[in-house]
Amino acid sequence: MGRRIELEVEGKGKALIELDSRNPRIAESIYRSLPIEGVAGVWQEEVYFEVPLRLGDENPSPNAERGDVSYWEPGPAICIFFGESQPYSPVNHIGKVVEGLEFFRGVGGRRESSIEEGGLALL
Fold first, then answer.
1. DSSP 45
2. pLDDT tens for each residue of 72-104
3. 115 vs 85: CA distance, rounded Å
4. Alpha-carbon distance 80 to 66, whole Å?
5. Are the beta carbons of 113 and 121 closer than 8 angstroms?
6. What's the DSSP call for residue 31?
7. 57 pLDDT higher than 90
8. Of 24, 73, 74, 92, which is most buried by a Cβ count within 10 Å?
9. From the centroid of its chain, how far is CA 26?
10. Which residue range is the domain that position 114 belongs to?
């Protein structure tokens, strides 16, 4: 796919995400649904935020790698894996953090979030 979106956590930093073709239907649906608003949280070494989209599963995986950005249908939520933790249940990978992954370690608690076309902001 090659589309890029920017993710910003207010007061923490920014990350650049490149959408990929592992789950192209879901990635495209999320991109076309921007802007999206939600609340971010942290679980193990993962930042997640709920999204108002029920997209079903496309090609779910029980594993994640550092930097994966994934859609989790049970939430539904978008998950950013910044460490070695694995998903609670299978996720649909939609992209990778290609810049700024390190700042996610400093994100804590629950924060207001929004995603905008060409950019994603966790406030």
1. T
2. 999 999 999 999 999 999 999 999 999 999 988
3. 24
4. 9
5. yes
6. H
7. yes
8. 92
9. 12
10. 4-122
